[in-house]
Design brief:
This protein is α+β, with helices and mostly antiparallel strands. Helix content is 30%, strand content 27%. A hairpin with a 2-residue loop joins strand 7 and strand 8.
Length: 315
């Protein structure tokens, strides 16, 4: 699976990396899916040449979402494997054991980068329509980093392992008003706590007494940096709980995170953001010097009316 993913990345204009450890972390810490049922492999003479997966959730807004993603090795595209994987994934969604007898809006959903031309054509050919956009953003760490004060009453403390659960619970609370939010199950914490690239010494967590007010959980993917001969750190998991929003806390934490990455020798920082984030995150990042380098489109198709026929097999 990692070999297939790695072969797709340069062809599709991406710049991420996947290790066996990363794949194992995803498969062994499932959230909303059963790996034995919901991860599908396409094999030719015993060799994996493609794979896909689907996870299932019911959003707080009431929509039932079956999240789909898949990869076909470039040398095996346009032979029907993408369509075959999608058809079988759809059958998994239709047979999801948690589906009630009553009706509620049910969708297949996926996301595609603006550099993935073949995948864009494939999903639109199969009846998916764009519903949301997100950006990947990058900041040059050679540019000045502003010195921004924390709001009065808050303090930064090193993140201790005994505090991981409290930090995660604050993050869960902060994301509840985001688009597509689904209540986070216990499995989500297990995935959080075992993420292979986290480095808590880079985390910047603001505390209001014994309560978390906000956080930026930065990390460095060293394997990815080595592969692309770059020095990038990620400023992700940016969250501020509602009582502390619009007081400059996110900006202050990000600025400190940028400085921490610079001290580690990084020359750029990156993050992802929902284009319509209700907290105005996109504007905050732009003010701090981040610029858009890629767009992701979220596509949906109603599950009940999804056609089993036609469409491109390029994905």
């Amino acid at each position: 699976m990692v070999e297939v993913y790695s072969a797709c990345i340069p062809v599709d204009g991406q710049d991420e990396a996947m290790t066996v450890e990363d794949m194992a972390h995803f498969i062994e810490n499932p959230v909303g899916f059963d790996p034995a049922r919901d991860v599908l492999l396409a094999e030719v003479e015993g060799r994996v040449v493609g794979y896909g997966w689907v996870s299932h959730r019911v959003e707080s807004a009431g929509d039932e979402i079956h999240m789909v993603r898949g990869y076909v090795h470039p040398s095996w595209r346009r032979r029907g494997l993408g369509s075959a994987l999608l058809d079988r994934i759809q059958s998994r969604a239709l047979g999801w054991e948690s589906r009630p007898e009553g009706r509620r809006p049910s969708f297949l959903q996926t996301y595609v980068s603006d550099t993935e031309a073949a995948a864009q054509a494939f999903v639109q050919g199969r009846g998916f329509e764009p519903v949301r956009y997100a950006f990947k953003m990058e900041r040059d760490l050679g540019q000045p980093i502003p010195a921004l004060p924390l709001p009065a009453g808050l303090e930064l403390r090193p993140a201790l392992e005994s505090q991981y659960r409290v930090i995660w619970e604050a993050q869960r609370e902060a994301f509840q008003d985001h688009w597509g939010y689904t209540p986070w199950p216990e499995e989500h914490y297990q995935r959080f706590a075992s993420f292979p690239h986290y480095d808590p010494s880079l985390w910047r967590v603001a505390w209001d007494g014994d309560q978390v007010a906000g956080m930026v959980l930065s990390y460095i993917n060293h394997e990815e940096n080595e592969r692309y001969a770059r020095r990038r750190g990620y400023t992700e998991d940016i969250a501020v709980i509602r009582p502390w929003r619009r007081r400059g806390l996110a900006s202050a934490l990000i600025a400190r995170s940028l400085s921490a990455l610079t001290e580690r020798g990084m020359t750029e920082a990156a993050l992802s953001v929902d284009a319509e984030n209700p907290s105005g995150a996109l504007r905050v990042y732009e003010r701090l010097g981040y610029r858009q380098i890629r767009q992701w489109t979220v596509f949906r198709r109603r599950l009940e009316t999804a056609s089993e026929e036609g469409g491109s097999s390029s994905s």
